[in-house]
Design goal:
Blueprint (H helix, E strand, L loop, with lengths): L11 H8 L5 H13 L1 H10 L10 E10 L2 E8 L4 E7 L5 H15 L9 E5 L6 E5 L4 E2 H7 L4 H20 L2 E2 L8 E3 L5 E3 L6 E2 L25 H4 L6 H17 L9 H10 L5 H11 L11 H13 L11 H15 L1 H19 L5 E3 L11 E6 L1 H8 L18 H12 L6 E7 L5 H16 L4 E5 L12 H6 L2 E4 L4 E5 L2 E10 L5 E2 L1 H10 L3 E8 L2 E8 L9 E9 L2 E3 L11 E9 L2 H6 L1 E4 H6 L2 H8 L3 E6 L6 E3 L5 E3 H14 L3 E3 L2 H21 L8 H22 L7 H32 L17 E2 L24 E2 L9 E2 L15
Parallel strand pairs: 12-24, 12-25, 13-14, 13-25, 14-15
Antiparallel strand pairs: 1-2, 1-29, 2-3, 3-5, 4-5, 6-8, 7-10, 8-9, 11-28, 16-17, 17-18, 17-23, 19-20, 20-21, 22-23, 26-27, 30-31
Helix pairs in contact: 1-3, 2-3, 6-8, 6-11, 8-10, 9-10, 10-11, 13-23, 13-24, 13-25, 15-16, 18-22, 23-25, 24-25
Length: 831
């Protein structure tokens, strides 16, 4: 039921202000909407504006919203339907104008599409001819893209809608022939609406092959948007609108005038400068649209819309003629990044984590801060040097030992036994022999056993070395000597060249299911900790577990001590080491800090000096300390360090025991824990990257370079992590976290940037709308800022004046201006 308003209408003052052209903006729009529902106000408005607007039966003309080559467009209220419509009125009638006007009515009347303005009614029987259409209040498409900062993907989707609407028109046998930004408005719902079928043409649904030529009509259309065959006045078909859509796409993507769209080299370069994603694909689409030969264009607007959908989705485009396998793979990756982002990210994380674990040559480790070393942890090395041999030859030492022969090394067991008898009163903590005694020599073993017994009587354990293990992993040592000694340790060689300031030393060896056998250093370390117990080893979870079994347990008492020690091992490998063990053995190595300072501070005592010293000196030198006995004769048992210097095996053993006692050996992260922490930080990196916005100031090429650098830094950090001397676990954790974040974050950020570029396709950048174009069609949008017209409220194209190119002068684009008929008031701006 229409609202009836009396002369006392509350909006009467607003209507009077609208009549006086005193309202702008929102007030003007509100007053015009009021006219739709208030008959008295419409009557008042008609009376007050009788000299400004023409009269049409059943309509109240509110204002003029455009003018052009074929007439004027008014915004008017249909009095009976109380609906705002657009009236397109033909003035200055000529036969050709009447023909085009009637054609437009017939064509638009048969089109029913949500993206094409709807025709309501028409009067063509008597002048002035007019028709009423749906009033589209919106903004010109290119200006809308600027004002809304529309992403490129949304621009392309909008043009897809336009292309499908035009394809519908083609299915009805109508070719628009004047597609351009001024003829496409974006309504309040963000949908494109196609206007102005003023020079539309009816053709067959298929491209005209043998059709009869059309009647000559000269140049019609808008420069930059019309196909070459249309410029030449030749017959056109649906592919002429494909050309116009390609030019429109070029302008909406680059912001440059559409007349530059047909320059292929310039097109690709320009798209790359705009940082358009997959610039080559989009350039191929535009180039195919604006190809000068109709047969080389898309066969229909639907085919163009489908290819634009391929481009936006990251799939291969049909316009690309030179497809290669690499191109197909690249588009497949782009599609995955767009549609399977979580899968791609998870796959990248897994691959990079596996790569990090593979690159890491050794497990990362750290050293506890080295505080002041307790006296009992300091190792004293008793050296058998060349001077010791000379002293032995000169009879300065060992002269009281019958059977000792300097040239018979086995007879030196007598000398070693005398040394232990000499040391026993000083009560060292433990005596470790970097020697092995595989066979029995009864004439010499008695002296050695006597010395071992003296140490045992003093409560000092003695550890001897073994070069070989039998099939049951038992040390190959003379039974008499082995029984007298506290423990045995394998003399597996270490590696002083592993890293600067570090030595890789054996912790224990294991053969098959047999119990692990400690190295000489580990056996000496255990003897120093528990001199009255035997060592039992168990290797698991990256550590060597050291349990102690009492030698003498009372009835009902546990045979095991409660104390359990653990030493982390860095690696396990089965190999032949210095010819000591065959490949059946597994060696578990530990890493110790062995800087030059530690070597320099190692307490050294020559054998001859120890044998000559009195008890007070021996107590001062060795009481409560670990003693290592070894040979330091150049040329025997020497290895080269990282720095190139030579080090003796007994020095390595002595410093290893000292490191174990002082706690300065490396502690390692177990492989399962390492994998878990790396994966954790990788997940943290993935979450962080998902929250970090992509910077559009960086091109994809720059982003790829930075991501590659981040990956390289992360991999290098993980590779060198095992070589870094870190003071504690938290430093290791920080380095590991940083390297993992770099390694994972770089590729993930690149994947995100590529995907965002797939979605955004190009950065949002400001560009200018199409400049004023030379056209033949009616131009109708609001341009009078004084009246506050709604921008783009129209049914047709946009410009201030209409131009018609003379049919015989299309090549030079000469403009012929026409003058409105006498029916049109002079103040309407017609020329």
């Amino acid at each position: 039921m229409p609202l009836r308003v009396t002369s006392q209408c509350l909006r009467r003052e607003a209507t009077e202000a609208l009549c006086a052209d005193e309202l702008t903006g929102g007030e003007q729009q509100a007053a015009e909407r009021h006219l739709e529902e208030c008959a008295p106000c419409r009557s008042l408005f008609r009376q007050r504006t009788a000299t400004r607007f023409p009269r049409f039966r059943g309509y109240t003309v509110v204002r003029r919203i455009g003018e052009g080559g074929f007439g004027v467009v008014y915004k008017a209220v249909h009095n009976a339907k109380e609906r705002m419509e657009a009236l397109k009125v033909l003035f200055a009638e000529t036969p050709i104008r009447e023909a085009y006007f009637q054609n437009e009515v017939r064509f638009v009347a048969k089109l029913r599409h949500p993206n094409i303005a709807t025709l309501y009614e028409a009067r063509l029987s008597a002048p002035p001819m007019y028709y009423a259409m749906e009033l589209v209040e919106g903004e010109q498409i290119d200006k809308y893209f600027i004002s809304k900062h529309t992403p490129l993907a949304d621009r392309i989707r909008t043009l897809q809608v336009v292309a499908r609407a035009i394809d519908y028109a083609h299915s009805q046998g109508v070719v628009h022939r004047d597609l351009k930004p001024q003829n496409i408005l974006i309504d309040a719902q963000g949908q494109p609406r196609i206007l102005d079928f003023g020079i539309a043409k009816k053709v067959g649904l298929r491209p005209a092959g043998g059709d009869a030529p059309e009647s000559p009509e000269g140049f019609l259309g808008t420069f930059g948007y019309i196909a070459p065959e249309q410029v030449a006045g030749e017959p056109v078909d649906a592919r002429a609108d494909v050309y116009a859509l390609g030019a429109l796409l070029y302008h909406c993507v680059t912001g440059e005038p559409a007349r530059f769209a047909s320059r292929p080299g310039h097109l690709t370069r320009l798209l790359q400068e705009r940082q358009v994603s997959r610039a080559g694909d989009l350039a191929e689409i535009i180039a195919r649209c604006v190809h000068p030969t109709p047969e080389q264009r898309y066969s229909s607007c639907a085919a163009l819309a489908d290819d634009l959908d391929n481009y936006v989705a990251g799939r291969p485009v049909n316009a690309y003629a030179g497809r290669t396998r690499l191109y197909e793979v690249a588009r497949g990756v782009a599609w995955l990044l767009r549609t399977r982002q979580l899968t791609v990210r998870a796959t990248l994380v897994v691959i990079i984590v596996a790569l990090l674990m593979a690159v890491r040559m050794a497990l990362p480790r750290w050293y506890a801060p080295q505080a002041e070393m307790p006296p009992e942890a300091r190792v004293a090395l008793i050296e058998v040097t060349g001077q010791s041999v000379d002293a032995l030859r000169a009879g300065e030492i060992g002269a009281d030992l019958p059977g000792l022969n300097v040239d018979n090394r086995k007879s030196w067991r007598l000398l070693y036994g005398q040394l232990m008898e000499h040391l026993a009163p000083a009560r060292p903590r433990v005596v470790i022999w970097d020697y092995y005694f595989p066979d029995c020599q009864p004439e010499y073993d008695a002296g050695l056993v006597r010395g071992l017994a003296a140490l045992r009587a003093a409560g000092v354990p003695a550890v001897i070395g073994t070069r070989e293990l039998d099939i049951n992993s038992e040390p190959v040592v003379c039974p008499t000597i082995r029984e007298a000694a506290h423990a045995c340790g394998t003399l597996v060689a270490g590696n002083p060249r592993a890293r600067p300031g570090e030595w890789v030393m054996p912790g224990c060896v294991q053969r098959g299911l047999a119990p692990p056998v400690p190295s000489l250093a580990l056996a000496g370390f255990a003897a120093a900790l528990q001199p009255e117990a035997d060592l039992e080893l168990d290797v698991r979870a990256g550590t060597i577990k050291m349990s102690y079994r009492k030698r003498h347990a009372s009835p009902g008492e546990s045979r095991w001590l409660e104390q359990v020690d653990r030493v982390a091992f860095s690696r396990a490998f089965g190999t032949r080491t210095a010819g000591l063990l065959d490949d059946a053995y597994q060696i578990y190595a530990v890493e110790v800090r062995a800087c030059e300072r530690a070597r320099a501070e190692l307490a050294r005592f020559a054998l001859e000096d120890v044998l000559r010293a009195d008890l007070s000196d021996l107590q001062r030198w060795f009481a409560g300390r670990t003693v290592m006995v070894g040979q330091t004769i150049p040329g025997f048992d020497q290895r080269r360090t990282w720095s190139g210097e030579l080090v003796f095996g007994c020095e390595m053993q002595a410093l290893t025991v000292q490191a174990l006692l002082s706690g300065t050996y490396a502690a390692h992260v177990a492989r399962p824990k390492l994998g878990a922490t790396v994966l954790l930080w990788a997940v943290v990196a993935a979450v962080a990257i998902s929250l970090v916005p992509c910077s559009w100031r960086l091109s994809l090429r720059t982003t790829a370079v930075l991501a590659g650098v981040a990956l390289a830094v992360g991999l290098a950090g993980n590779f060198f992590l095992a070589g870094m001397l870190l003071a504690n676990y938290w430093q290791l954790h920080a380095v590991q976290a940083a390297s993992t974040l770099f390694a994972v974050g770089g590729p993930l950020y690149l994947a995100k940037a590529v995907r965002e570029r797939q979605l955004q396709l190009a950065p949002q950048h400001a560009w200018e709308p199409e400049p004023q174009t030379i056209a033949t069609t009616l131009l109708a949008t609001a341009s009078d800022s004084k009246t506050g017209d709604t921008p783009g409220s129209a049914t047709t194209s946009d410009a201030r004046s209409a131009r018609v190119v003379a049919p015989d002068d299309s090549s030079s684009a000469k403009v012929n201006r026409w003058t409105c008929g006498s029916e049109t008031p002079a103040d309407q701006g017609c020329q």
